Amino acid sequence: MHTTHWGGPGEDYRLKKISSVNIDVVSGISGPAPDDAAPVWQTPKARHSFPWFEVIMTTVGTIGLLSMVIFWLSPASSGVASLVKTTLLAAVPLLIVVSFILFIDRWEPEPWKTKVALFLWGAGVATLSSGILNTALKENIILSIGDLQQSNALGATFIAPLVEETLKGLGVLIVVVVRRTNINSLIDGVVYAGFSACGFMFAEDILYFIRVDNPEAGGVLLTFVLRGLFSPFVHAMATSMTGIGLALALLKFKRGWSKTGIVLVFWFFAMVIHFAWNGTSAFLFRYFFLLYAVIGVPAFIVWAVALIIMSRKEAEKIRVGLVPYVRTGWFIPGEVTMATDRRARRAALKWARSGGREAKRAMRSFLINLASLGMDQRLMAKNGPDPARIEADRQMLAEAVDNRREFLRLTSIAEQQQDVTDAVSRLAQAH
């Protein structure tokens, strides 16, 4: 039988290193050397794995989304064909923004169930609540000044940024409080904020497109171009500021007043971005394209490039954070490379696919766990130990060991089956 060195030249070394010396058959892990620079791992405690938080957030968001469909997007009032068409149009900018967010989240991706829960929060809770509050406050402005057009412009410029950025950011705040061990970098804050913003953008785009999708109003194509193609990232850019502020408060600041202060500063930045876009559209539309080219496009480029650079630096942070694990024999350099190099990761997943879907799933989980362990270790090396993170990392380390054992077992079975098939084929040809 031939041997596949999936992990590079160090595979044989790793197999010996993690044999009976380091892996206990019952518990899955054992304690590393006394001089270990990483946390001292104990047998993981049993934990409840049911994602109650995500289920509650998803349920609340879904109820909000259904309420909006029933009361604002009712097929009886808008037409089923119009609802389907505008939903498909709204899916275009959604795919653009989500693709970018997933790209910067590629090294240590956040759990899908949490990202989906935040998306539904943005689409259901934030959009529905914003619609109610914006309408109520705009009615007060109309009663005060008596000018409908001017009231709409003032509401869009001054009320909408405050209300919408607060409600979108509130979902991210809840995640930071309840799932704080999930967040170990500024990129994580941006990702969660981005999904909340994507949900809001998706629902709001459908509302806007339906509003102009009739012969009298017209302009659905123009609205789609302006919202879907010219400005798909406005909501994500704005809310990402709140996400960065919340991540900074969690990871960099110790005192309560400083945490609150940094969140308020970046929340203000979120509102400024939203205010600038809405104010330009409402009061300076004749100069819209000039301001878009001079200010909007450069601002987006700076934002996107900054996030891409931050994302690339995550790979280096993961490599540094995994050094203690390599030193103590938990992982080998080849595995670290698989977690931090795009080509190596693709090769590892392709190799695991030979063992079937479960082997590939185990390999993907293994790489994600490695990345999370590296980021947490790098963070705690700078900020000191965090009991909650240490406990979460114990679970991830145990899961990584199980993942490795699983994909090695499945790929070994597949390899043996292939060898038997090849041997039978050779015998058949010989006879």
Automatic annotation (TrEMBL):
Transmembrane segments annotated in the record for this chain: 52-74, 86-104, 116-133, 153-178, 190-210, 230-251, 260-277, 289-309
The keyword Membrane belongs to this UniProt entry's keyword annotation: yes
GO biological process: proteolysis
Xref: Pfam families: PrsW-protease
GO molecular function: metallopeptidase activity
Keyword tRNA-binding appears in the UniProt entry: no
InterPro entries per the UniProt record, alphabetical: PrsW (IPR026898)
Keywords: Hydrolase, Membrane, Metalloprotease, Protease, Transmembrane, Transmembrane helix
The protein's name: PrsW family intramembrane metalloprotease
